[in-house]
Write a structure and sequence with these properties.
This protein is α/β, with parallel strands linked by helices. The protein contains 20 helices and nine strands. Helix content is 48%, strand content 9%. The chain binds iron/sulfur cluster (2 copies).
Length: 472
C-alpha cells in the first residue's frame, strides 16, 4: 500500500502508485485545463506532488511546454538568482565488491587499475584541488568493507579538512559512499560532513535487482531506505539522484519525487540536492546497451519539471554532461556544477597515464576550473564557492526555512561575491580576473538589504588585502 510515512521502501516507493501515476499522466497529457490548473499551483512556488508533476513531464501541448520551461526559469531565478555553486569530486578508492552492470568499478571488471589512496596521496590531491581554487568536495569510494571501511573514510575526511595550503581550504566535504548503518551515518555526521549523497540508480525494483546482480547493493530495500537511516544518524542534508537510462525516465521521475515526499513527510525536510546524471560511456560500458537512455530534449524537460516540483532543492549537473548540454539546462534550474573534475583515483595531483585507466566515467566537459568560471560569468552567471550555510549550522529544516522565506538572497549573493573575489585573488588567470571584477562591481548593487550590501563591499576590500573567509 502506498504510504509516504512508512519506513518501508515498498510502501513509500510503491510500484502500483507509480504505475497509476504514469497512467494518470498519459491520460492527461493533452488536458489543457488540468495543465493550467497545475501550472497555477506551481506558480505559488510551493512545489508539486508526484502526480501533478508527472502530468507536466508528459504534457505534449507545445504552448504549455513553453510555459513549463519559462516557469522553471522564473523559479530558478527567484530561489537561486544567477548563482552557480562549484565543486569537485574526489575519488578515494575504486575497490568495489558490487556488480553494478553500468559502472566500470564493478567487481568483475579486470581491466581497470584498482587504486586506493593513502592519506599522503589524499593530502597531495587536496593541495592540487586547493591550488585550482576549490572549496567544496564530494568524496567518492566504491563499497568494499575490507579496502574502504568506514574508518578509512573518516580518516580521509579528517585529512581533507586538515590541509591548509597557502590561502586554500576545503570548507565542505560532501560524501558519496554506499548505503550503511545508522551508527556509521552518525560517525559521518560527527566527522562534519556536508551532504550525504546516494544515488538510487533506479527506483524500479525489478530492474534494480537485475542491474545489481551481486554484492550488498543488490538489496533494494536496504539501499532505498538508506536516507532514512542517514537522517536517523543526524545527517540532515541528503542528496538524491537516479542514473537516467537504467529504467524509463517517467518511472524514475515519479519515484524520485515520491522519495522526496517521503523524507518531507517523515523528517519534515526534503532532499537538500537532486543530481541528474545520465548514463555515459566508460570502460566496459556502452550507453547504447541501455535502451532507456534519454536525449537532450527529454533531459531539459526533466530538469525543468524537477525545478518546478521541488523549488527548494538544489540541483546538480556534473562533467558527465558536455559544455553544450550543461549550457542548455543551467538556466532551467541547476544550482551546482562540478568543474575541472577528474574521475580517476588520484587524478588531480598526477594526471593518469592511458594504461592506468582508473576512471569511473569519461568526462564530457574537460575544461579547467578557470575556464568554467570564466564561461559561467560570460553567460551571465555568478560562480560561487560558498559553503556558508553548513558552517553556520544552517542545515536541514533551518536551511529550508531560510530558503522558503526567500531570505537566502541576502546570504547567497554576498557570499557568492566574496568567495568569487577570493578565487579571483588567489587562482584566476588574468583574463578571468578582468571578467570577474566587472561582474562583482555590477552584482554587488543587487544585494537587497542595504546593511548587508555595505558590509559585503567592506569585506570585498579586505579580501583584496589578503583577508579570507567572510560569510553571512
Ligand atoms: S556504482 Fe558504486 S557500488 Fe556500483 S560498482 Fe560502481 S562504485 Fe561500486
Ligand atoms: S549561503 Fe547557503 S544556500 Fe546560499 S550558496 Fe551559500 S551555502 Fe548555499
Amino acid at each position: 500500500m502506498y504510504d509516504p510515512k512508512s519506513g518501508k521502501a515498498e510502501d513509500f516507493i510503491n510500484h502500483e502508485e507509480i504505475l497509476a501515476t504514469l497512467d494518470y499522466a498519459a491520460q492527461n497529457k493533452h488536458n489543457a485545463a488540468l495543465i493550467d490548473e497545475i501550472l497555477s499551483k506551481a506558480r505559488r512556488r510551493k512545489g508539486l506532488n508526484h502526480r501533478d508533476a508527472a502530468v507536466l513531464l508528459d504534457c505534449d501541448i507545445p504552448e504549455k511546454n513553453t510555459e513549463i520551461f519559462s516557469l522553471a526559469e522564473q523559479i530558478k531565478n527567484d530561489f537561486y538568482g544567477n548563482r552557480i555553486v562549484l565543486f569537485a569530486p574526489l575519488y578515494l578508492s575504486n575497490y568495489c565488491v558490487n556488480g553494478c552492470v553500468y559502472c566500470p568499478y564493478h567487481a568483475k571488471n579486470k581491466h581497470i587499475a584498482r587504486k586506493k589512496m593513502t592519506q599522503e596521496e589524499i593530502a597531495r590531491e587536496v593541495i592540487a584541488l586547493q591550488d585550482m581554487g576549490h572549496k567544496r568536495l564530494a568524496i567518492e569510494a566504491g563499497e568494499d568493507p575490507v579496502n574502504n571501511p568506514i574508518e578509512y573514510i573518516l580518516e580521509s575526511i579528517k585529512t581533507i579538512y586538515g590541509i591548509k595550503h597557502k590561502n586554500g581550504a576545503i570548507r565542505r566535504v560532501n560524501v558519496n559512499i554506499a548505503a550503511t548503518t545508522v551508527e556509521n551515518y552518525r560517525k559521518l555526521h560527527e566527522a562534519g560532513i556536508g551532504t550525504y549523497i546516494l544515488f538510487q540508480e533506479t527506483y524500479n525494483k525489478e530492474n534494480y535487482e537485475n542491474l545489481h546482480p551481486t554484492g550488498p547493493k543488490h538489496n533494494y530495500a536496504y539501499h532505498t531506505e538508506a536516507m532514512d537511516r542517514a537522517m536517523q544518524g543526524g545527517i540532515d542534508d541528503v542528496g538524491l539522484g537516479v542514473l537516467y537510462g537504467l529504467s524509463t525516465y517517467r518511472y524514475e521521475f515519479a519515484g524520485l519525487l515520491m522519495h522526496a515526499e517521503h523524507l518531507e513527510a517523515v523528517f519534515g525536510v526534503g532532499p537538500h540536492t537532486i543530481s541528474v546524471p545520465r548514463i555515459c560511456p566508460a570502460d566496459d560500458i556502452d550507453p547504447k546497451a541501455f535502451s532507456n537512455a534519454i536525449n537532450d530534449d527529454i533531459f531539459a524537460k526533466l530538469v525543468a519539471c524537477i525545478r518546478i516540483a521541488v523549488p527548494y532543492t538544489g540541483m546538480i549537473v556534473s562533467t558527465r554532461e558536455s559544455q553544450k548540454s550543461r549550457e542548455r539546462v543551467l538556466h532551467l534550474g541547476i544550482s551546482q556544477i562540478s568543474g575541472g573534475s577528474r574521475t580517476s583515483v588520484g587524478g588531480y595531483a598526477e594526471p593518469e597515464l592511458p594504461e592506468e585507466n582508473s576512471a569511473q566515467f569519461d568526462i564530457s566537459d574537460t575544461r579547467s576550473l578557470d575556464e568554467v568560471v570564466r564561461w559561467l560569468m560570460q553567460l551571465g552567471y555568478t560562480p560561487s564557492f560558498c559553503t556558508a550555510c553548513y558552517r553556520e549550522g544552517r542545515t536541514g529544516d533551518r536551511f529550508m526555512a531560510l530558503c522558503k522565506n526567500m531570505q537566502i538572497h541576502n546570504c547567497c549573493l554576498p557570499n557568492a561575491l566574496m568567495t568569487l573575489q577570493e578565487y579571483l585573488e588567489d587562482y584566476a588567470s588574468e583574463e578571468t580576473k578582468k571578467v570577474g571584477a566587472a561582474l562583482i562591481a555590477k552584482e554587488v548593487g543587487q544585494i537587497p538589504n542595504e546593511k548587508v550590501r555595505r558590509i559585503c563591499k567592506e569585506h570585498l576590500e579586505l579580501i583584496k588585502n589578503n583577508q579570507r573567509d567572510f560569510r553571512f
